[in-house]
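During data preparation, a discrete fold description was generated, as reproduced here:
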Amino acid sequence: RRVKRNVSLERNAHLISLPKGEKTFAFEGFKKEIIFNKANLFLSESEVSRYLLDAGFNFDHISQMVCTAHLESQLNPSAVGINKDALGNEISRDLGLWQINDANWKLCGISKQDELFDPKINTRCAKKVFDAQGFRAWVAYRKNEKKCKNYALLP
């Protein structure tokens, strides 16, 4: 079941990288623009947790990964991140719930970008990325590591 949210993540709103209404932010020398194909379609934390467990994530990593998904896509499986250099040229794309970068698509066996809008496929890909690089694969996690380590899932 998917839920619509018009407010920013209730009690965990402080974790979102994008200020309300903003679609662009800058970090580590480049800009990232987030586009939501289905702007009001969000997953609940319990749905995301189930996808993580089904993909083989260790129970101890669930809350940190949910935090990462909040930061990366605001739990919107249709999110598209366009990474641009200082001149505004597109340098890469991040897709879906975990914002899987196009550099990792081969690792996941992704041939069509639309596959990554399926949260089940995106989470299985995130598991492969996690196994190869750990939490540090996600820039948003690195910038908010302390918050994500202490993240409490909503009851």
Notes: Helices lie at 45-55, 62-73, 105-108, 119-133, 139-143, 145-149. The longest helix spans residues 119-133.
